[in-house]
């Protein structure tokens, strides 16, 4: 057993090793060493010895080895796609610069030709998707670095008013991009419409001052909904009865802004009395 313990102490995920293979190998060693080791302890040990970039996205989200492999493989694939995308961008920009230099005849005067400056990488854009909640349409930010789905208190009140109370978040703290930590005001589960799919999501509601965007979609919802992200092609896939259907992320200059009402898709004319509002549109005057 001492030999197994020593092997566990030295075992780390190799650069060319898939998370799936490493996780199951590590689990087998843990159970060989201590057959009664709790699964959460095994998950914690695996994350401590795997790719830090992937592990950072999984901590607090997965609690079983099966979930770790399922979600981790998706994150691992996204990281690989992003790396390949930037390599292609770099090669394309570099090749364009060389061809332009040769076309100007720069290669005839090697003594005075200077190398072009390093290519400027395009600024990373937000991953934006359209959503409809309670007949109110808006834009949410997809963030694979966020464990949970987050929503501003102002948007929550606009959607639900005072008709629904928040459930305590057990003092769940969230570390923002500026390094500060804040406690959620509460959480609640509700339904939404995403490209015709009716889905359920649980969101932690934050003070408006502590959240940069009205709504952030985290790994919890992406996992539950079985969403596939292809960052190289800037598309995301939603599962349907006929397989996955891919949609492009919204293009710039789209930015997350105020959520607005959608037009009812029924042939019915409705004349509201002055001062009357539909239940889900309490903050949007008709």
UniProtKB/TrEMBL annotation:
Q: To which species is this protein native?
A: Knipowitschia caucasica (Caucasian dwarf goby)
Choose any GO biological process term that the UniProt entry carries and state it.
Answer: proteolysis
Q: What is this protein called?
A: Uncharacterized protein
Highest rank taxon of the organism: Eukaryota
**Gene3D superfamilies annotated for this entry?**
Acid Proteases
Q: Which GO terms of the molecular function aspect are on file?
A: aspartic-type endopeptidase activity
Q: Which InterPro entries match?
A: Aspartic_peptidase_AS (IPR001969), Peptidase_aspartic_dom_sf (IPR021109)
